Amino acid sequence: MWTTVITGVFALAGVFVGTALEPVKNLITARAKTRQVRGEQCARLIGAATVIQQRLVSLNADFRAERAREQTATDDQRSGWIQEVNDGKAALRQSSDLLFLYGPDVLARKAREVRDAELAAHKLLESPGTDPDPMTVPADLDAALQALEKTTLDFAVLARRYTR
């Protein structure tokens, strides 16, 4: 008889503890999911910014070679670069906006800074520069690209803190 009572008490205690801990378990799971999504969006933003930076240099060199009447990239190459820049800009915009949703605010603001730095570099895409060599990146575009790289690295450092 005592065995049945003790078993019943322990079963009731187990159910009580399980019920009490369920909200805590759900909270931990939700936070882990948010951290995972935040990490994926940060990685996507950093990757997009890097691709955009590389392709802006390629497109500017092609633009300057065309102006100097030198050999330029094929239409397929140029179209591919433009597509990569457009895809990168879309990924950058989407990731930046999703980071505003998932937070924290400091990370979302830094993502917006990366996006603003990319826009500033993109405005200088057809910068003629002073050097006649098309392979030399114009000083104003180079400065904008370095600002984009620095902003992206600052974002990555901050993202590391919020995605671990």
Question: What is the secondary structure topology, with strand pairs?
Answer:
Blueprint: H1 2-67, H2 75-102, H3 105-123, H4 139-163
Helix pairs in contact: 1-2, 1-3, 1-4, 2-3, 3-4
Structural notes for this entry:
- The protein is an all-alpha fold and 164 residues long.
- The chain has a single domain, classed as Four Helix Bundle (Hemerythrin (Met), subunit A) (Up-down Bundle), CATH 1.20.120.
- The chain is 84% helix and 0% strand.
- 22% of the residues are buried.
- The mean pLDDT is 86.
The largest β sheet comes out as:
none
Radius of gyration: 26 Å
Amino-to-carboxy terminus distance: 52 Å
Q: Which structural class should the secondary elements be placed in? A: mainly alpha
CATH topology category name:
Four Helix Bundle (Hemerythrin (Met), subunit A)
Proportion of beta-strand residues: under 5%
Number of domains: 1
Helix content: over 70%
Q: Specify the number of helices.
A: 4
The number of E-state strands comes to 0
CATH architecture: Up-down Bundle
Shape: rod-shaped
Mean pLDDT: 86
Q: Secondary-structure element sequence?
A: HHHH
Indicate the CATH class.
Mainly Alpha
Query: Regions with pLDDT < 50 over 5+ consecutive residues?
Result: none
